[in-house]
Design goal:
mainly alpha
């Protein structure tokens, strides 16, 4: 039997933050400090999740785009 997902619970700011941080750690955790990743996630989500945000389904994707751009700059600066 397929497991059902509570869409409302998955779209809370806490759940979105956890998902984005988990994805960021998986992608960049081997070469970016965890404190830096947490800062990037917080910053990206602060700009995307406001009181007027009604549709949150794309927020993780948009946040990961912001984080990827920061990671690219971070890597370029380190080189």
């Amino acid at each position: 039997m397929a497991q059902q997902v509570d869409v409302r619970a998955a779209s809370t700011p806490e759940a979105i933050s956890k998902r984005v941080l988990d994805d960021s750690r998986r992608m960049y955790g081997s070469w970016v400090d965890d404190d830096v990743l947490q800062n990037w996630v917080s910053s990206a989500l602060t700009s995307l999740l406001t009181d007027s945000t009604r549709v949150t389904i794309f927020v993780p994707v948009l946040a990961m785009r912001v984080i990827r751009e920061r990671a690219d700059r971070y890597a370029a600066d380190a080189a």
